[in-house]
Design brief:
- This protein has 3 domains: 78 residues; 81 residues, no CATH class; 109 residues.
- The chain is rod-shaped.
- It has 279 residues and is α+β, with helices and mostly antiparallel strands.
- It is 38% helix and 31% strand.
Length: 279
C-alpha cells in the first residue's frame, strides 16, 4: 500500500470522526469550541489508529509476497537439483588438516560433467575440517582400484572438473558403432578402457591384417599387422618391424591379450561382452 493511500485513509477517518463527534455534541447543547476541540482530538486519535492498522496490513502483505517469491525461488532451485547420491560411493576420505583432504569415489555409472561437478560440490560440503585443498578422484565400479581415475573434481583451491575417461554420450557412441556395417572380414572388436578409451577392431582386407582404433568422435587410426600363430594355435598380431616386442593375441574365447617382453599385461573382452557388462 503506497503513501497516498495511507494519507487518504488518515484524512477520511479524521474528518469522519470529527464530524460525527461535533454533531453529537451539538445535539447535546455543547458550545462550538468544545465540539470542535473534542471532535478534532478524537478524529486525530482515530486517524492514527486507522493509519497504523493500514500500515501493518500493508507490511504483512509485502512480507507475504516476498515469502511467496522466495519460496518460488527455492522451489525453482530445488527442481533443478538432482539427487545423485545413488550414483556414487565414497570409499576413502583422508584429511591432513589444515593442508589437504583426499577423497576416492566409486561411480556406479558414467555421469555428465555437470553431474560430476554437483557430486564434487556435495562431497566438498561434507568437510569436517577446514583444509586449503581438496582432491577428489573417481573410478567406475568396473575399473580396478589401482587404475587411473575416470574423472576428478579437485579444489586447488578453486574447483576444476575433469573427465579423463568417456562421458555417457561418448561411451554410447562407441557402443552404437556398427562394426559389421563398417568392416567386412572381422577378426574381433574390443572396448579398451585403459589409457585413452577407444574401440579396437581387428579385420582383414584382401588377405592383409589390420587393427583400427576407433575413438569417441568416430575418427580412426589404422595400423597394418603381421599375422602368425602362437604355439597353442591362437592368432598373434604385431606391427611390422616390431622394435619394442609388443604384440596382440586373440585367444580361443575371443579376448584380446596385450603382450610385451615382460608377458601379458592386459586383456580386453569382446565388444559384445563389454556392452553387456556395462549395461
Amino acid at each position: 500500500m503506497n503513501d497516498n493511500v495511507l494519507l487518504m485513509v488518515f484524512v477520511a477517518v479524521f474528518a469522519g470522526v470529527w464530524w460525527f463527534v461535533s454533531k453529537r455534541l451539538a445535539k447535546m447543547g455543547k458550545g462550538a469550541f468544545l465540539r470542535h476541540f473534542l471532535g478534532g482530538v478524537l478524529g486525530l486519535f482515530s486517524g492514527l489508529v486507522a493509519l497504523s492498522l493500514a500500515f501493518g496490513l500493508s507490511g504483512e502483505t509485502s512480507v507475504t509476497g516476498q515469502d511467496d517469491k522466495g519460496n518460488q525461488s527455492v522451489d525453482s532451485a530445488s527442481s533443478t537439483h538432482q539427487d545423485l547420491s545413488n550414483h556414487y560411493e565414497v570409499i576413502s576420505d583422508q584429511v591432513n588438516a589444515p593442508f589437504k583432504r583426499t577423497v576416492e569415489v566409486v561411480l556406479h555409472e558414467r555421469v555428465s560433467e555437470d553431474q560430476l561437478e554437483e557430486i564434487g560440490r556435495s562431497i566438498k560440503a561434507m568437510d569436517d575440517e577446514e583444509v586449503e585443498r581438496t582432491f577428489i578422484g573417481y573410478r567406475l565400479d568396473s575399473q580396478p582400484s589401482d587404475s587411473a581415475y575416470w574423472g576428478t573434481t579437485h579444489y586447488n583451491p578453486t574447483l576444476n572438473v575433469v573427465i579423463l575417461g568417456l562421458t555417457p554420450d561418448e561411451y554410447k557412441a562407441l557402443q552404437d558403432f556398427d562394426v559389421a556395417g563398417e568392416y567386412q572380414e572381422i577378426m574381433g572388436s574390443w572396448f579398451i578402457g585403459r589409457g585413452f578409451p577407444h574401440l579396437l577392431v581387428a579385420y582383414k582386407v584382401d588377405g592383409e591384417s589390420f587393427i583400427d582404433e576407433v575413438y569417441a568422435d568416430l575418427s580412426t587410426s589404422s595400423s597394418s599387422m603381421v599375422e602368425s600363430r602362437t604355439d597353442d594355435g591362437n592368432i598373434r598380431l604385431e606391427k611390422p618391424n616390431n622394435e619394442f616386442g609388443e604384440y596382440f593375441v586373440i585367444d580361443s574365447q575371443g579376448n584380446l591379450q596385450f603382450w610385451s617382453k615382460n608377458g601379458n599385461y592386459f586383456t580386453a573382452s569382446p565388444k559384445a561382452d563389454s556392452e553387456q557388462a556395462s549395461s
